[in-house]
């Protein structure tokens, strides 16, 4: 019967491991599928219910009560009081449109990030129907048997039934960051809290070391984690530096806007002698014109869109803010195996005390031979080879899956380094499955990057030298040599002389120089007289891994990923440095680094973990400025490299997959975890997850990150550039002391700002990365979004073009009507209205040219395809429809003081978009030529 109450849970801790299955309605073969389904129907899914989110109405209303909105509410009210209800309504309408628009953008961005969250499902390994399976963590049910290994996230509360050096990080529950030891034995003590009970493990915690097996006893909201879930759900999306900068920017621009407003107010009062009320309204129009409405939500949306695009290119970004850091990354610290290389290992050589064998065949298919001197050899003919390959295969956890429904090839479950050992053994004629049955594994000292080796203890069928216990160890040759004092040569065990040690290292280095990966295998017969403890749980690496007999080397190829060399080259162009930090051997690392172009020098500096340990920070910093490779480093040491790089002012992206990589992943500006080979713990610590473990995907993500930043600039440039043509007419009016009648009314300014300008601007936020974006050095993170260059370009260049177009069009109508002799601005003069309509329409039309210009920074707009951005095209169409409506619909005419235009007016207007485009194209061409000439001169 399934336990449903806490009393029963406590008794479960007191049961011996073998009684736990039945108590939780399970058995050693796990639940059957139908049992699991039936239980799920009754108990539901293993989910932590989300706390109620903030009400959508409150979020909506939030867009109407921030500082700028309040200013606009007040401005509108003043307009009403001053007897201009139309303007009051317009200003309020601006506020409403802006609020609704912001809400809509935010909502879309939220949806995009939610969708992303669902792309990161978590899985659990279970035994069901007697077989190991991978299921969604939400489908776990009471009675399921879960398998745990280092780095796994635990997804339900469970009672251990097997454990091997298991340590669990329970900090999410207890706040205690030191890992806690967990055992499978019954716990009879009564005065322990649940978290202190050593045979219970809990949802939300993770395995920091060792492995184990446990039976689920609680799921979902009834787990300890579920009970306190409310507390952990208060995580707020913190504002990214970019969003903060934009906030500051909006405030800065608002201050500028208000200063302009005050200036125009005073000028209108004193210079033109306008009455107080109309001067105020005039100033209010200026203020509204300058405020960049919709900036923040648009930026959030374009970040979210970039995140979606990245996910299609195998990079899942967990936080929007990471996108910016990606864009300014200056150094990528990457591991080698699996990220730069394919992690598809194939054993191609064996080395046994001077005898060398070639292994043929590709991939994981066991079709191949072991050859020497052109002859095929099988394990049965060579005792040492038999021992080498049997030891290597038994000391592995990976499983080989034969071709089937899922794949037409042999595939691997587990670590490829281990899988290829089994394949080589099969090629030598060893039946690995049978061997594992005949020599069952009793104990495992799991692989750790720090130890660079793994050991297993097995029971032999027949005793050898009076014992049936044998330990096999495999790992980095230097490490294994340190543990060995004897070596097997042609079936006899002899003392390992210094000369032999250097022969082994020479062989190792020879292979490594070819970029091959080398593992050594040794064994030890565990005899009572050698003080081997009786209890297997007392076996520690210190006790077991000594006095070993060296057997030989297994050499494997792990070719670089084909796309990596190009990605490395791209980084070089983009001014991004790549530093390889690997656990593998220095010469192997160097050879691969050279092959894919990470290092160009003939003798790059290769720093080993040991050297790194002894190096001072000053020395390290000095070395970090040049080409460098870190080899044989422990994951913990990555943190130091990252910190030192950051102290040098670099923006660092770092890759990692293991539990011990977490500190470096967290410290880095961008922590990148591997989606396939990575542990849950690494994924949790990272900012970005690569679904294909591929280095090239990091480079794609950086490209997108850069594109977002430049898109935001494009958007900003566009919305700022209409400010000038909006302000210049008023300035003309003021400084001519009214001799030039006001070319643009306040209502018309508002139309441009919110009506016509918004839609094309939005399109700019969705531009694809521009060609050449990866040919520039990384962005200086200190550089502000609104820099001098952008201000000059927006106000003085684009702004000037728009102002000229507007002024020209305005005078075009006026002069036709005999200006300056006619009193234009008096009353409802249709001639005056036609002229102001022209000024308005000219700004809108020159903005059409400008939006094409803003799409690229240096490239020709024609080169990227003038009409390629559908959102921009749609924005332009809406813009044109709006201006027609304003000009021809009588109700709008009366509100916005517009009048129908003549055919000749329209013809003139049609000149502006191509002309504005042309001017900018010429400037861009000049810029490109200048750059080319500059690079030729270098
Ligand atoms: P990278 O750090 O680039 O991923 P790596 O896989 O070589 O490279 P680690 O996983 O830290 O780095 O492994 C360190 C070393 O330990 C390896 O170079 C190898 O010699 C040894 N090793 C790797 N996997 C195993 C294993 N499953 N069993 C025993 N030894 C191993």
UniProtKB/TrEMBL annotation:
Q: Can the keyword Transmembrane be found in this entry's annotation?
A: yes
According to the entry, every stretch annotated as the Cation-transporting P-type ATPase N-terminal domain falls at 11-84
**Has UniProt tagged this entry with the keyword Iron-sulfur?**
no
**What topology in the membrane does the UniProt record assign?**
Multi-pass membrane protein
**Residues spanning the membrane:** 56-81, 87-104, 253-272, 278-304, 790-812, 832-852, 872-889, 901-919
The protein's UniProt keywords, in alphabetical order, are:
ATP-binding, Cell membrane, Membrane, Nucleotide-binding, Translocase, Transmembrane, Transmembrane helix
Name of this chain's protein: Haloacid dehalogenase
User: Which SUPFAM superfamilies does this entry report, sorted A to Z?
Assistant: Calcium ATPase, transduction domain A, Calcium ATPase, transmembrane domain M, HAD-like, Metal cation-transporting ATPase, ATP-binding domain N
Q: Which family does it belong to?
A: Belongs to the cation transport ATPase (P-type) (TC 3.A.3) family. Type IIA subfamily.
Q: Report the main location listed first in the record.
A: membrane
| Localisation | Cell membrane
Annotated PROSITE patterns = ATPASE_E1_E2
